[in-house]
Amino acid sequence: MLTDIEFVCQFSTDLGEDYRIAKSYVRDVPTQALLHIRSFTHKLTDALAQANGVVFDSPNLYDRIEALNAQRIINVRTTRALHRLRGDGNRGAHPEKYHLTADALQTLAERAIERLLKLVDDLYPLMQGADTPSYMFEPFDSFAGRDLCYRAVMEHDAQAQYLVGMSLKTRALMQREQEQALAEKQDGVQSVNRSDESFRQAAHWFEQAAEHLPDALYEHGVSLIHGYSGEADVTAGETHIISAAKAGVANAMALLGYFYLVGGAYIEVNQVEALHYLQAAARLEQSEAMANLGVLYYQQADYGQAYHYISSAAQAGFPHAQYHLALMLARGEGCQADALASEQWMAEAAEQGQLDAMLNRAQQMLNNENALGNDFSVAERYLREVVKYGHSVPAMIELSIALADGILGRIDVVGSATLLKMARERADEREAAVITPLWRSLAEQVEKVLQMTDASDERLALHKAQEILAEPKC
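Above: the chain's sequence. Below: its structure in C-alpha cell form.
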C-alpha cells in the first residue's frame, strides 16, 4: 500500500515534494511547514488552471481560487478547503499576530497537513481521471529538525542556519507576546523573559547565514534594528535591509518601502522610492506591502488605488488590511458603500485576531441585535482577547458593563469591578469621564443587593466587589 507521501507524489511529482517537505517540518519548524503548504496550494491552483485551459489575470492566491470557483472547475467544498489552506499559510508567516502559542502552531500545522491530504484525495479523480488509490498516513517525526541542527552546526549550511534562526525567531515572538499579555507588576521586580534568549540565538544563526543567503541577510538586518542580541545597531540593520531588498527579497522590499514611507533612523522619507519598493514587493504577493501601498494612496486621497491595494492585501489574508477594508466599505471610500461586505470583512479580521476588529465586532454583537453572526460567547471571547493582548480601556469598559448587567447570561460583580479598576488605572481624561459614573453605579448596585440577599456565596462576592471599588483613603 502507498504511503501518504507516495500517494501525493503519484498525484503530482512537484506537489509531492512540497508535501514531503511540509510534513517533515511540522514537528520542529511548523512555520516552514505552513509556508510550504501555502506554496503547495498556489501550485495546485496552477495545475487546476492548466488542466482546464484557464489563464489567471492575477497572481493573488485568493483571486485564483475564486476564478476557479467562478468557472465551476472546483466546487464549493474544494473552494473552502483551498481558502482554509491559504489562511493556514498566512498564519504560518506571522504566528505571533494570531496570538498562537508554540503548541497551537504545531497543532495548526498538523491539521493543515491532514486537510491538504484530504484535498488531494478529493481531487485525485478529477486530475488523474482514475479512482483514488489506497494509502496509509505515516506519523509525523522529528528527523527534519535534528537534520537541520546537524547541518547548521556541523556543515555550516547557510539554508539550515537560516531555518534554525527562523524557528528560534518564531518561538521568541510567540514567547514575547505571551509575556507581554501576562505581564503584571510584581513589587517592582523585573521578571526574566524567555524570549530574550530565543531572540539572541536567532540573531546568531541569521548572522552566520547572512553572507551567503539574502533572506538571512534581511533577518540579520531586522535583528540588528530590534536588538535581538541586546544592543541595537539601527544604521547597520537598515543597510542590510537595503542590500537584501536589492537582492530581491520580498520581505526586505516591503520593509524598505515602509521605511521610505515613514522614515527610518538612516533612511529618509522618499515617496518615489517607497512606491518603487512597495510595488515590487506587492508583485510578489507580500501582503503588508500591498496594505502599505494602500495607505500611501489613501494619504494622497487616491481612494480608488487605496481600495485596490487594501482589498488585495485583505484577500491575501492580512488582518489589518481586512479591518481597514471594512472601514472603507462602510464609508464608500474608493468603492460603492456596502454595509454587508463591511461586516463580513470586519468579522474575518476579528476571527484572525485583529484587535480593533475584535473590539468592533464585540460591541456590535452586544449592542446591535441585528449584527452579523450575533453570539454573546464570541463577543466575550473577543473582549477578553483585546483586554489581554491590547490592554484596551474601551474593551475593559464594555466587558465590565456586560458582566454587571447580565448581558452575557450571568452577573459577575467581582469581574466587572476588577475590569473597571484596570480601566481606570489606564484611562485617559475622556475615558475616565466615562468610567466615573459607571464606577458609582456599580458601587450602588452592589450596596443595594447586599441589603437584599442572605446567600453567603453571593455576599462574599459582593463584599469582594466592594473592596475593589473602595476609594483609597487619604
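The chain is about 75% helix and 0% strand.
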